[in-house]
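Cross-check.
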Amino acid sequence: MGHFDIAVCGGGIAGVAAALAAARRGRKAVLVEKQSALGGLATSGLIYIYLPISDDREHRVAASITEELLLRCQEYGPFALEKKWGGTSNGHSGHPRDVYQCCFSPAGYMLTLEQMVREAGVDLRLETTVTGVRCSGSGRLEEIEIFCGCEKEYISADCFVDATGGAFVLRMAGAKVFPETNYHNPWVIEVNPDDKQRAFTGDLHMQVMTIPEINGSMPQVLSAAEIQEFMRRQYQRIRDYYDAMSPEKRKNIYPVHLPMMPQTRKIARIDGLAEICTGEAGKRVEDSIGVVADWRKLAPAWETPYGALLSRQVRGALTAGRSINSSGDAWEVFRVIPAAATTGEAAGVAAAMGSEQNLDPAEIPVVALQQELRKTGGIMHLDESKPFK
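Predicted model, tokenized:
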């Protein structure tokens, strides 16, 4: 059995940010990812847009690791920030909106994320699945069981971060969660000489397939059966799109890469110590650990209460990304890449502080956590954001 200061479960953007934050504080960190690449929905799921970290005032509302991950997503691919947002005079973000965001090559970003994690000294376990947990009598998560190849291993840690996207580890540990309706909207990289929208380069572009929600939605995607049904519908939707073309047309328009994971936007949110609710945009939150822009429109940004990362039922762990306790319209805002990075970094720093001070994450003074996040450029409140220069 191996012991780590911090164990991060899930190698999407939230997990990468958490592992980087913990390791850069000198903590012994392990990152467990069930796929062979990092990035989660951003890469394996082909959701290739690093959405805005600027608000309706053209202020940068996130920095530190969140901004670093945005800047580095350009390394292997055709997209680049525009000059207004710190890029080049001929930079093209891949998206028509004039905000601080950028598209990226999913495969290229996999390479960057893996390099960042290795350079930080994180013990990276790819193709490794969390298959079980062990908790103390007081409900503290103490150990996870992992499986890779035909080998089983047990990992204990001072603190855990569940960045699986659906609170899968916390659920195994007994955490209560709330599901949400998901819909089928597959993104596929295809060759299409007739369509220049969402272009990567030449004839290669992203095809986003819409489907009426009345036919494509599922009330929840929590159980094994529901996950299998969601994937079946995802593949069927893609086939339906190409089957609607003539065989001759399919010789010129065809997929070259499909999403390698369920494109579920909202799986489960924890029953957290705090909840982010509809209508709280622009509201000051005293225990905020970061600010998240509204990716859908030019609108006030949202502050993020630390308690939304903490389960009421499970100790010794935090969550980050899509499974924090945000509901209603807030869940739509907080389910995307920048929010995952912001909450991931906060979870990683909090977990590291808990390990350093022998504290449960819920016992960490929020003021102290905010001070640590600010040391690397973190923005805690809306009035700390500044115009982009």
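The chain has two domains: 2-62+104-180+267-387, 187-257. Residues 309 and 324 are 5 Å apart (CA to CA). Passed to J.P. for a second look.
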